[in-house]
Amino acid sequence: MDALLLKLPGVSARKINGLDAYFVKDKMFVCINGAGVGLRLPVAAATELQFSRDNIVPFQPGGMASTREWIQINRAEAIDYEKDLELFQTSLDFVKSARPR
To answer: Which of 14, 15, 38, 79 is paired with 61 by a 20 to 30 Å CA distance?
Structure first.
């Protein structure tokens, strides 16, 4: 994931609660959880993806439910996450422009 995400402008990586996470403007937009990768998207996009792709599920780090903005992509091979680069960019743009809660 480092090779894929750290080449995007403004992205940094660090561990949070034992999970590898990626940040933009000090806000997390991607997090590795077990065999999957969680990312934050607008609610409508996250919901649509959960119903349209069989490898996307709600993001539940450590078995705990997350918000409706978070989804998890599960791929058998790490290299296949390159196919989701557009989603990672969408997540980055969404989080970067989100207003503080």
So the answer is: 79
Decide: residue 24, CB within 10 A, 0-12 exposed, 13-18 middle, 19+ buried: buried
- Write the single-letter amino acid at 100: P
> Nearest to residue 12, comparing CAs of 4, 23, 28, 1?
23
Q: Is 76's pLDDT higher than 90?
A: yes
Residues 47-71 pLDDT 10s: 999 999 999 999 988 778 778 999 9
Residue with tokens 């450590």: 62
C-alpha 51/C-alpha 71 separation (Å) is 11
The vertex-71 CA angle with 84 and 62, nearest 5°, equals 120
Instruction: List residues bridging with 37 in a β-sheet.
Output: 32, 73
Fold annotation for 2-97 = Aspartate Aminotransferase, domain 1 (3.90.1150)
